[in-house]
From TrEMBL:
Ranges for domain Peptidase S24/S26A/S26B/S26C: 15-124
Protein name per UniProt: Translesion error-prone DNA polymerase V autoproteolytic subunit
A Pfam family reported for this protein in Swiss-Prot or TrEMBL: Peptidase_S24
Keywords: Autocatalytic cleavage, DNA damage, DNA repair, Hydrolase, Nucleotidyltransferase, SOS response, Transferase
Gene name of the record: umuD
Family: Belongs to the peptidase S24 family.
Gene3D superfamilies per UniProt: Umud Fragment, subunit A (2.10.109.10)
CDD domains, sorted: S24_LexA-like (cd06529)
UniProt GO MF annotations: DNA-directed DNA polymerase activity
InterPro entries: LexA-like, LexA/Signal_pep-like_sf, LexA_repressor, Peptidase_S24_LexA, Peptidase_S24_S26A/B/C
Lineage: Bacteria, Pseudomonadati, Pseudomonadota, Gammaproteobacteria, Oceanospirillales
E.C. designation(s): 2.7.7.7
Transferase keyword on record: yes
Top enzyme category: transferase
Superkingdom as given in the UniProt entry: Bacteria
Amino acid sequence: MPLALPVSTIRIRAGLSGFPSPAQDYASDRLDLNAHLVKRPSATFFMRVSGDSMDGFGMHEDDLLIIDRSLDPRPGHMVAALVDGEIIVKRYEMHHGRPCLVSGNPRYAPIPLVEHDCQIWGVVRAVIHQYPV
């Protein structure tokens, strides 16, 4: 069932540039996060991140990934893959003309796909990261 919640029409700035005009419209629209983040429901699944290998790419322990199976991976895409029987998330890249899966942590070496049994399960469309409160 859709759950549309209020979303402000005002964009929040990530830097200092002054204050919005008092005359600026503060009206809000409605936003359903499923409609916003899930483009192909029948091809979408969710997974939680475990470990620190993707910290450098903004994916942290317990973050929720929204993964779309219908997309073909291209270099630069984050992907969920089954590699040698282990489910992992990595960035798909080409190194010296060969496809590799790369971590966001320099402690982990790239994984050349030609040397491993690999199935790409889908492309990561979004990461949901919650801050402790």
